[in-house]
User: Which sequence fits this backbone?
């Protein structure tokens, strides 16, 4: 009995492997290879995606921060004087936030 069960399981595994390799596709029994094709059609600009390493990302961010700093330094104090600064006052602490030791 156990031999027949093992033989049946081996045959089923071979049939599953053949199905995955599209052996039955000519009869319409192939695996579903198209996964959500509507998502591919709904992509707006797939060419805009750029994959970069963390090191390249940190270099790019450092370069942009340096260019922003140099742009702010080149405008001088006139640009910073044109933006009025409001005084910052801390919010009063609520009585529930205070704890007694």
Assistant:
């Amino acid at each position: 009995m156990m031999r027949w069960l093992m033989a049946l399981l081996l045959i089923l595994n071979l049939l599953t492997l053949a199905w995955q390799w599209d052996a039955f596709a000519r009869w319409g029994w192939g695996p579903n290879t198209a996964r959500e094709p509507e998502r591919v059609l709904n992509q707006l600009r797939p060419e805009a995606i750029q994959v970069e390493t963390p090191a390249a990302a940190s270099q790019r961010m450092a370069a942009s921060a340096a260019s922003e700093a140099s742009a702010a330094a080149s405008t001088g104090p006139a640009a910073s004087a044109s933006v009025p600064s409001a005084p910052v006052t801390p919010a009063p602490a609520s009585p529930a936030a205070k704890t007694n030791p």
Remarks:
- The CA atoms of residues 40 and 46 lie 9 Å apart.
- Helices lie at 2-20, 37-41, 54-75, 77-82.
- The two ends are 75 Å apart (CA to CA).
- Residues 54-75 form the longest helix (22 residues).
